Amino acid sequence: MPTYTAPPFDPELGAALDLVAGIIPPTFTPEMIPLMREMPFDPAFDELVASVGAVHEERTIPGCNGDEIVVSIYRRPGQDTAGPGIYHIHGGGMVIGNRFAGVQSFLPFVASHGAVIVSVEYRLAPEFPDPVPVEDCYAGLVWTAENAAELGIDPTRIIVGGASAGGGLSAGVTLLARDRQGPALRASLLIYPMLDDRNETVSSHQFQGIGVWDRASNFTGWNALLGDRRGTDEVSIYAAPARAEDLSGLPPTFIDVGSAEVFRDECVAYASQIWAAGGTAELHVWPGGFHGFDGLAPQAQVSIAMVDTRNRWLTRMLEA
């Protein structure tokens, strides 16, 4: 069996990992799902929404198979000029999280660009295995595009994006939009996305028992989503976009990832395949970064650089 030596963590990030080691273990097991779903709501969230001059509204819309799902909408009160739309899909390994997780980083664009953010409450595995999560997300995107005028969104400037599982689902939704001739997307923002159920890359072997969201955690998420199909030829490209052989015809795509995390190699491969297909991708691999390091250690220099680079790209897409 090959020996896999992991690249080192950035010194600032390694120190941050030591601080959270007792709170966030490297390995996420199926038994931890119920407890992790009980994470409390951020008490400062409503204040953050108000601080950017946004109002929050909830709608119940049709999801996969017409079942009801909820979306949250953040926009300026009385918005009467169409702005860009940001369709947000939260992370959580396909098994935890909700539509309020991760949307905070996009809220400033309500104030700066008149953006309208729609964040979808897709249903989670294992109770709702594939294709429910990605089809819920796609249904929400279609609803957003069809109701763009009422929401105050310019339908030619809709960006889909999310982090981790949300990044993987964003990639799947982008492929669905292409293949079903659905909403025309301005861009696709994939933040350290979860793309490949096979767990066979070098980086997927390098991180076991260290960092955040290690190899065993990845099995937890994908097994919950795909069951016995995980790793077989029965997995669709919309569930695991790394399996897509044709990445032509996609909107401009941004991918960032840490060099010290499971998802590194599948992210690099995905960007390379977009380039090979003649597409546009911007890829950033941040040295020594573990999974989600910008959220867990936001004051680290590499985190600041990562978020700044991502926001500069998003600004370009919103203003294009």
Automatic annotation (TrEMBL):
The keyword Hydrolase applies. SUPFAM superfamilies: alpha/beta-Hydrolases. The keyword Hydrolase applies. Keywords: Hydrolase. Pfam families: Abhydrolase_3. Residues 87-293 form the Alpha/beta hydrolase fold-3 domain. InterPro entries: AB_hydrolase_3, AB_hydrolase_fold, GDXG_lipolytic_enzyme. This is Acetyl esterase/lipase.
